[in-house]
Amino acid sequence: MAAAWLALSLCLPQYRPRRSWVLGAFALFVVVIGVADAFGAYPFKSMWSNYERMEGWVTLAHLLAYVVVAVSVLNTENLWRRLFQWSLFVSLCLSLLGVLQVFGIFSSAGGTSGLSGRVAATFGNPIYLAAYMLFHIFIAGMLFAQMLKVREAGRRLAPALFYGGVIGLDTLALLLTGTRGAMLGLLGGAFLTLVLLSLAPGSRRLRRITIGAFIGLIVAGGALWAARDSAFVNSVGFLGRLASISLTDNTTKARFLNMGIAWEGVKERPILGWGQENYALVFDKYYDPRMYAQEQWFDRVHDSIFDWWIAGGTLGLLAFLGVFGAALWVLWRASLTRRTDDAFTHEERSILTGLLAAYFVHNLTVFDNITSSILFATVLAYIAYREMTTGKTAPLLSRALPSRALLFAAPLCAALLALVVWGINANAYAANRALIGGMQPQEAGLEYNLTLFEKAVSYDTYGTQEAREQLAQIAVQILASNQVPTEIKQRFTATAVSELEKQAALSPLDARFPLFAASVLSAAGDYKNAATLLEKARQLSPGKQTILYELGQNAYFRGDADAAVRYFEEAYKLAEDNVVARIYYAMVLIRLGRDEEAERILAPIIPTGQAADQRILAAYVEREQYGKLIPLWEARVEAVPTDVQAYFTLGAAYYVVGERAQAIATLERAALLGPEVKAQTDPLILQIQSGTLKVQ
């Protein structure tokens, strides 16, 4: 597309963009982020991103090219209207898929059915679908307002039904995603639009509607808060998620902790930041131990302000905010300066301002994705196009080649495009195919899987890191299998560790690679060398408990009991409400015979049943301390009376210590849970009574 436009614009000046605040601000943003990426922590990844995200600076450059081509080629209002109408039609189809997903007629990865679930349609993520719907709701509102201006009263019914249907169904689909940021953005953006519309002269009736809407929002919010624990609210997914918004909500707390981590990264590199795709390095270095219950490898802050602050520093953030500022200036410039050449009606600028506000609010709780970025770029291009229609904007370049030069320019641009596409995409595509093949069972055997992994790495693309990480995971699985020959295990181990070391050299601040390499070596039984790598990972992420868990287990297997206790104790003390850390600490104490200390550590979580953990079970069984299991599992069945396995474990403990009557009574209690359970307990009871039961 860009190559075709380039050939056209070389010869025909009317297909070149004019000077624009919006276009200039967006270009400046792309340049600033490009500089930040070049001087960032890992420039290669900042440039190309990875298979999962597919972002990086190359995507920003594509978005800039898209904006330039759009404002140049879509040079009439009718072309823009057709583009928006087709996009609205697609959004309507997707919203219908979302509704079908609620009823279980349509299913997709990433979404759940039922009124209490979260729909994703074909996006694979409810958040992405919500952002998509958010844009189209406001675009439909803008086209509706434009239609009222240009159509006579008798010709409004069909478009009104279409735009109204889009607004209604897309709003329903957005709500069904359960995305709180998008819902708040929609409410805030819609209300702001109403306020701005009511400021127009002669809008007394609209002002009353706005006041009524404000009162309605307060009343509805209060009613939802009052009924937040009701069965109805909790049975409707989006109502339950809205009602659960609070500073104590786990997701909200995690967002604030993540922002705190990001702030530490901003303070370290305040001017140009770390470069795109490098928040994972900040997350490792400044990891907050209170994040223990969350995902361990964040690559986004889940807040676009902090995401761009991390990626581009203060200059990058200002450039990002400048894009919004330029768009708002273009929308309201004529109104503020009382110019007569206004490119927008009051309705258009109010709705577009509401859209920008809604998108901004939505992005305070999530990160951008390629779909929302394209839609944002489309809206920016439309605003820039309207800015250029005022007639007072000069073309960027006025000189043109002779029209006959198009015959030469077109094939030249096409050839250039082919070379660029081939050079960038061919190897990445081939590497991806090899990687997928390496992860799948092969008839030629595991040797061929390893060959495919080596082939994927050999292309040296932005998929190389993914290939190395997947190789490490496959190697761990192979090492755990008794069916694989030793020679193949050794080859996978050596290759995986070697490749991870190469990746660590490219990105020396990333804790993942020494940790993954240590996991491979530990699976191979090489605990000494694994310990060295684990210490390296710990230096890169000193507050992450998962690394300390690995160090503790490594020390235990090496026979260094004191070090094992020290690591597990450190992990426990980083956040004492971390149940997993408490379990690990108690486990190693039990294995070392320090039962009194272990019981003191476990005491706070015994009443909740959380102390009845398989790791605690294994530790006591290892020392044949079966009686110690009884109070823990008695508390478990008391706290969680539907846990069938807990009854079996408790019954087995009673049986081993010689309390057969209690064992039978426990199994009889389990039998009350249902006929399927009773079918399992009855034979066990008979074996206990006959003394033939063998506990394994």
Structural features, described:
The protein is mostly helical and 696 residues long. The chain has 3 domains: 21-79 and 178-388, no CATH class; 425-644, Tetratricopeptide repeat domain (Serine Threonine Protein Phosphatase 5, Tetratricopeptide repeat, Alpha Horseshoe), CATH 1.25.40; 645-696, no CATH class. Helix content is 71%, strand content 0%. It is built from 31 helices and no strands. α28 (629-639) packs antiparallel against α29. It is globular. It starts with a helix and ends in a 6-residue tail after the last helix. The mean pLDDT is 88.
Which stretches of 5+ consecutive residues score pLDDT under 50?
none
Principal-axes shape call? globular
Helical region count? 31
User: Beta-strand percentage?
Assistant: under 5%
**Structural class computed from helices and strand pairing:** mainly alpha
Summed up, the domain count is: 3
Give the biggest sheet. none
| Beginning-to-end CA distance, first to last residue | 67 Å
Computed CA radius of gyration, to the nearest angstrom: 31 Å
> How many beta-strand runs?
0
Average pLDDT metric:
88
